[in-house]
Design a protein that fits this description.
The protein is an alpha+beta fold. The protein has 4 helices and 4 strands; from the N terminus they run ββαββααα.
Length: 89
């Protein structure tokens, strides 16, 4: 697919416009990052492929929660009773 786009000025930057059909063809959205290279006088733009984000298991997410339960038990007395200053209720 060949596309012609004009370089224009926007603020202090030089900007080219990518038509929606080209974005769709490349499976890109606005805000996607492109790696730009110049090879033999030609501009080559490649999508930056970000590594997949780690998916945590429930066990991994709850890791350390036992310590929080114990801490909450140990500090329960500090959370009971009437306010003695200007604490938020």
């Amino acid at each position: 697919m060949s596309v012609t786009s004009k370089i224009r000025r926007q603020g202090g930057a030089a900007v080219i416009t990518l038509p929606p059909t080209l974005l769709k063809l490349l499976h890109l959205d606005v805000g996607a990052q492109l790696e730009l290279n110049v090879v033999d006088g030609e501009l080559i733009a490649r999508p930056v492929v970000e590594p997949a984000r780690k998916r945590y298991s429930l066990a991994e997410l709850l890791e350390g929660s036992e310590e929080m339960i114990e801490l909450n038990k140990q500090t329960a007395s500090a959370r009971e009773g009437d306010a003695v200053g200007r604490e938020l209720g």
